[in-house]
Amino acid sequence: MIKDNLLLAFLLAFILCISVPVYxxxxxxxxxxxxxxxxxxxxxxxxxxxxTNNNDGQTNTTTSTTTNSTTSNGSSIPVNSANxxxxxxxxxxxxxxxxxxxxxxxxxxxxxxxxxxxLNCERIKxxxxxxxxxxxxxxxxxxxxxxxxxxxxxxxxAPCPWDGKIGKNAKEMWxxxxxxxxxxxxxxxxxEAIAKIDERILxxxxxELARLEAERLExxxxxxxxxxxxxxxxxxxxxxxxxxxxxxxxxxxQVHD
Length: 257
Fold this sequence. Notes:
Layout: H1 2-18, E1 23-26, E2 31-36, E3 41-55, E4 58-72, E5 96-105, E6 108-117, H2 119-132, H3 136-143, H4 147-155, H5 167-176, H6 184-249
Antiparallel strand pairs: 1-2, 2-3, 3-4, 5-6
């Protein structure tokens, strides 16, 4: 790792050394051009043509002069893009992926890349090899190192193996030592959510039981009042019957002369 970093630092230093701005200057009476990176560019040129004709002792001279002047003002000059290097695993049995990047600015550009291990790919390949060797429990165990697989096995009712224990015995050990689960954080969040839901359900059930109990007591009280009213009415009816009976049985008074 240190060797790679030193190589990368040397490469960047080399790029900086060869990326010094280039200056050129050429001066001529008729044609002058000055190039400076990131500055103005001026091109001036002069062209003179002379033609002499001698016919029958007469001399005709024609002179033509052309002057061209071009001035270009540029605040910045674009540089070539820095291309990121390409990486490949070079083999179908290697679990790694290439990562590369590049950056370019005015006067300097740099690119770099490296290989990154694909741990999930390694886990799958190791599991396949163990399964081919007949080590099915070991193959499942290495897959259970992934939190997603561990949670899926738990939800399916087939918990991951624990030191040679499988099934119910393994589940008891995972419940006893939940901190060793690869999905411990997700397990805590799930347990808290379940506890909150259960608490809410218990509160709702308690409220429903209280409501039913109140209705039962209300009906009981209403029934008690009804029975008391009926008993009172029955008592009044019997009292009237007794009064009528006494009136009928009262002896009559006879008067004799």
